[in-house]
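Exercise 7.
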Amino acid sequence: MNLPVYLYGHPVLREVADDVTPDYPGLKTLIADMFETMYTSEGVGLAAPQIGKSIRLVVIDADPVAESFPDCAGKKMVLINPEIDVLDGDNVNRAEGCLSLPGLSEDVKRVENIRLNWLDENFEEHEEIITGFLARIVQHECDHLEGMVYIDHISTIRKQMIRRKLLNIVEGRVSCDYPVRYAPRKRK
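Solution. The predicted structure, written as tokens, is:
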């Protein structure tokens, strides 16, 4: 099922997500629905808060960007309760976008080398050193689990420059090619 993507301004995007347990109801179906939603929205990653679920679950399929970023070839992952350790290396500035912030793209500095620990859909443990653009995708999606979005990493001045665009998203004045859920309207 193609689920609506929750847009910037929705409170669920600012919550710290809860751990997922093996008895989480309908987990396999939720994972399948998240992949379908991600593909329909033409994303390479999707975190559960982006579909209104404040749980520590991420799906990634980085293969569509493998031509530009070979480290992403064949990388399809389900991350349950992921934990990131930053490894040595430079911060790299690169443009990022987000399904929850349609029409925006900003340069974000991120490390290129991480150690990722996670559980897969069968609750089997994994640990892997991840580098390059795939490390950026993982960090971006895991930020959602901490109640963060990528613009939290840009300068205050840059946020002021895109303030009107952010307000348009919050107020529901954007159009998307995929189903979305806007922030609840505040009553006056």
